[in-house]
Amino acid sequence: MTFTYDSLVLRNAGYVSSETQQSIRNCRLLIAGCGIGSALAEAAARLGFERFIFADGDTVDNHNLNRQDYEVADIGLPKVTGLARRIRNINPQADIQQLNEPLTPDNVDDIVASSDIVFDTIDFLDLSGIVALHDACKKHGKPMITALSVGWGGACVYFPKGTTWTFRHLFQLPETGSVDNLGYTETFAHVISKLAGVIDTQVIQVVRQALTIMEDGKPCPASQVSPGAFAVASLAATMIVRILSGLPVTEAPRMVIADMPTVLTSAGIDLTDPEHKPFAP
């Protein structure tokens, strides 16, 4: 059968209006960080996004396969190359720009300026790259979502165009200037302290252990599982479609969290209750 865009998005009808579908098709989506960002890329492609910028200087490794959108044949390839191939296997018409290098204050400006919506999952180890990306989005008035996997779930913060909130504010960084002198561990520990008591305690324990090991100067790939990556993709893809539809989306400084252990133990309705009231844990 011959591929057509209309056939790809046919089953979106009822959830995505024809006007929003056209906005999706026209939107240039910058995915900065193609690790967890690879899961969003696939979700977005299947929704009908077909204009992408992939930015990441990393290569695919064995340990990425447990949660990122790659396969054994991609090992050793630049992530942007493997991901572009994956997306074109879904939509051969996809227009994809690939930047096989980290984002920096020197290269981020033009990339952000040419995008419509920005999705950030740059590794927290590259704090200067994250800040440069957020500064550029603020400068060019680009809406952006920054996200992280939290164990079995995911979390996203939406910075709309014109917001007064910035990544620097929320993560207690200097309002201007370089952050090269700041450590990963102290910045991320601040985030985790905000999540303590809100998300599953197992996540807090695992991340704090990782931060302790990193302070000792030992290599420490962060522990992550595939449901967390897919939760991030689901959250972010839904947020982006709602943004393009003109529907309300929770904005910074609030963080949206889909914590699956919490959902599985404290959410839902009792199907035997005639009033269908939400049940308590």
What do you see in this structure?
This protein has 281 residues and is of the alpha/beta class. Helices cover 41% and strands 13% of the residues. It has helices at 5-8, 18-26, 37-47, 79-90, 108-113, 127-140, 167-170, 184-195, 201-215, 226-245, 260-266, and strands spanning 28-32, 51-55, 95-99, 117-120, 144-150, 153-159, 256-258. A 7-stranded mixed β-sheet has the order 3-2-1-4-5-6-7, sandwiched between helices. Helix 3 (37-47) links the parallel strand 1 (28-32) and strand 2. It is globular. It starts with a helix and ends in a 15-residue tail after the last helix.
The end-to-end distance, rounded to whole angstroms, is: 50 Å
Q: What oligomeric state best describes the polypeptide chains here?
A: single chain
The H/E string reads: HHEHEHEHEHEEHHHHEH
* Count of discrete alpha- or pi-helical segments spanning 4 or more residues: 11
